[in-house]
Amino acid sequence: MKTDHPTFRFHPLLCWDIVAQGLYQKRNRLALESLRKFAAKHQLHIDLHAVAEKDFEALVITDADQTIQWVSHGFKSMTGYPAAYAKQRKPSFLQGPATRAADRQHIRDAVLRHQPCSATILNYRKDGTSYQCHIELIPLFTSNHILTHFLALEKEAR
Fold this sequence. Notes:
InterPro entries: PAS, PAS-like_dom_sf. By secondary structure, the chain is of the alpha+beta class. It has 5 helices and 5 strands.
């Protein structure tokens, strides 16, 4: 394309990350909106602004017994499992033979103490491939300080 303007130049797109960033932000906005609706329905107190500032690919909510109640759309993209399959299962269904017992114990200890934690654990996708999953676990309490749920922000560690 020819232009008469001397400072006008076309520059090739050097990286698709620019495009992907917009898709990533849109997916996370949709996940946060879905999380907001779930939290309102179940009267959960979640600091959505703090969650929005975090880097995540998937969100998972379990009840206090660690049974999955809700997952974001990113969960299927990351694991290959649809939400309907994950619901009513424990997150441990993603673990396998090479998942380290120490990593599982670290998360289990935080759950028992009702404390937040960060961990990276080896999980397995539906197709059997393994991946390192970084998890930020946040306990969710009622206004009376009763633990009702856990929120996990998950991202594949690369």
